[in-house]
Amino acid sequence: MPHRKLPALGTLRAFEVLARTGTLATAAEELCVTPSAVGHQVRALEAWLGLPLFETSGRRRLLTADGARLAGDIGKAFDQLEFACRAVAPSKEQELHVNVTPTFAIRWLVPRLGRFHARHPDTAVHIATSAKPIDLTRENMHAALRFGKPPWTGLTSELIFMEDVFPVCHPKLMRGRMRLSKPEDLRHQTLLHTFYRRDDWANWLAAAGVAKSVVDPTQGLTFDLTTMAIDAAENGLGVAMTREAQVSAVIESGRLVAPFRRDLLSGEGCYLLTRPALWHEPRVTAFRQWLLEEARRAFPEPAKT
Fold this sequence. Notes:
By secondary structure, the chain is of the alpha/beta class. It has helices at 9-21, 24-31, 35-49, 65-88, 102-109, 113-119, 200-207, 226-234, 244-253, 282-298; strands spanning 54-57, 60-63, 94-100, 123-129, 143-148, 156-168, 191-194, 221-223, 239-243, 265-274. α1 (9-21) crosses α2 and α2 (24-31) packs across α3.
């Protein structure tokens, strides 16, 4: 095997952490060294390459175009090294890191995780939540669960189940002079929005054939998380936009109702996403199979394609 012409591994590690964290202080804390040591390692790598990798903006270190390209490739390489080492390390318990949207984690996934643990007691599932788009090539995650439509660029995906997006409200809004009997009646109610899904109301009203002049899709209250909007609806503050998996239990209990047809805004799926290199990793495979079983249990009808 020919001799590899590589810079010192320490310089690559310091660069990868600084590229991910953005400041010398934060990178130093992760690496358990001083900020000056991180800076020295990065300068050594820049000298070896013969080009700058960062620009300075206050305390922040901003990647150059070359730096950004190298950071993406180095991040993938370190991921592969980590998983290769974990694959041969003698350990009875393996970790599975999954990123999930907060509302889906709280209202659907976490209550069911006990069944996965009972089947796979040697796999410790670590759930991280984020409502923002996730870059699995940069995050130390095995997989993510996201709602939307393909394609998922650069990722391998599998549809877990399909869902419609629809409004829910407290039963009291179905009674009285201002009761909800048709979509146009929403003009008398407060719309409850989720920050990262701000288009849901506009899309649903358009699907229902309601003009913006009749119901303003931007009016109302906005929450960071869908679960907060659902809680607000449960307390009678207005009408929230949600999905079946998030509210099936509270609708069944009678604490919330769906005042209109649920199938007006359809075609959004829950997908398991991962990097192609991890698709057949045993922990990911086991989790994917379990999710599909749970989806069949929760939604007996076959998933739409």
